[in-house]
Specification:
about 350 residues, alpha/beta, six-stranded parallel β-sheet, 11 helices, binds NADPH dihydro-nicotinamide-adenine-dinucleotide phosphate
């Protein structure tokens, strides 16, 4: 197989601004787009130079020349579309959050597993050269035993993205599913484990009349009592982002790395002082994800964030939502094993 040929499920901003350009850069082909509106789909196809536009998922999935689908509809649609694609034998790259409930996410994993297709979730941060370098440093023992992680991921939501994210909880709006899920994916990749429990406080602090939370702070406990704190928001314009890992022998301080672009800096601070460390590379995060996906289809590598990692990141985000709503600490295992119905 040469470059993968893709069906794009969703005429979305992210497909147009990030994924289609990345597909072309890595030699893969966006062949068709699915939209619920014939007019929007046709316009999207013309604007993005995609040959085919569909309004029927089944008709698009019937095409034998489509190898894989990229799902970037609003979040309540991911599960049904991913399961249908898997049953049609298509490999699946699904946007985050993988689904809106653990039950739906597990259905996606089972369908992909049963069909023998690759499933990956487009949490882009673990693909960043800065994050990969941090993982390498931690594995080499540069910080000793990790004790704590701090995540600064409070940003100002661009106006063009402010629709369903602020107004539609039923479509998966809110900062927790949008950004805390990314933090969870990034930290679990760094630590090689997921959060055991989460305590969160959320609120709506924007100038808009949001129907969902637009700011949240979370505290998480990971195995071996590694403590993680995160601050995520749609409301903060000038904080900048950051990621810090503090261990018994040193600290990694990363700035500007919780972002979609291959930017940001890393410093290692230990008994020898502080020095800047270069990232693994400055490759585009989506190029890295799509190249790894194609290798996974060829059976040569694992996706950057596989279905299981996507499920776990979702579980942590749902635990944060549950905690913020209920006002108590939530055990992630209880969500994953269905002992705790989440309330939103
Ligand atoms: P958009 O709002 O751009 O698109 C989502 C859906 O909204 C589309 O599928 C489309 O439906 C519909 N839509 C798009 N434009 C219009 C319009 N003008 N009028 C009416 N409906 C419209 O969403 P995003 O691109 O921001 O997010 C899509 C998914 O990608 C989400 O799951 C999100 O969490 C994820 N995401 C991931 C990022 C990452 O870096 N990993 C970054 C940004 C988003 P239809 O397809 O039926 O035409």
């Amino acid at each position: 197989m040469t470059g993968l040929r893709w069906g794009l499920i969703g005429a979305s901003d992210i497909a147009s601004t990030r994924i289609i350009p990345a597909l072309r850069r890595v030699g893969q082909e966006p062949l068709a787009v699915l939209s619920s509106s014939a007019e929007r789909g046709a316009r999207f196809a013309v604007e993005n130079d995609v040959s085919l536009s569909y309004t029927s998922l089944d008709a698009m999935l019937d095409r034998h020349d489509i190898d894989a689908v990229y799902i970037s509809t609003t979040n309540e649609l991911h599960a049904e579309q991913a399961v249908a694609a898997a049953m049609a034998g298509k490999h699946v790259l699904c946007e985050k959050p993988l689904a809106m409930s653990i039950h739906d996410a597990q259905k996606i994993l089972s369908a992909c597993d049963g069909a023998g297709v690759v499933l990956a979730v487009n949490h882009h941060l673990p693909a960043a050269g800065t994050h990969r370098k941090m993982r390498e440093l931690i594995a080499q023992g540069a910080v000793g035993k990790p004790l704590a992680v701090r995540v600064f991921h409070a940003v100002k939501l661009p106006d063009r993205l402010a629709g369903w994210r602020l107004q539609n909880p039923e479509r998966g709006g809110g900062v927790i599913l949008d950004i805390t899920s990314h933090d969870a994916a990034a930290v679990q990749a760094l630590l090689g484990a997921r959060a055991l429990e989460v305590a969160a406080i959320s609120c709506s602090q924007g100038l808009w009349a949001a129907a969902v939370e637009d700011a949240v702070v979370s505290a998480m406990r990971f195995p071996e009592d590694v403590l993680v704190q995160t601050h995520d928001a749609f409301t903060v314009g000038y904080a900048g982002t950051g990621l810090e890992v503090h261990g018994t022998e040193g600290s990694i301080i990363a700035r500007g790395v919780m972002t979609q672009d291959p930017v940001g800096s890393l410093h290692l601070r230990d008994a020898n002082g502080e020095r800047e460390i270069g990232p693994s590379d400055r490759d585009d995060l989506y190029d890295v994800t799509l190249s790894a996906f194609a290798e996974a289809v060829r059976g040569q590598a694992a996706p950057i964030v596989d279905g299981q990692a996507g499920l776990q990141a979702l579980a942590v985000a749902l635990a944060a939502k549950e905690s913020a709503q209920a006002g108590r600490t939530v055990a992630v295992d209880a969500l994953l094993t269905g002992q705790l119905p989440h309330s939103g």
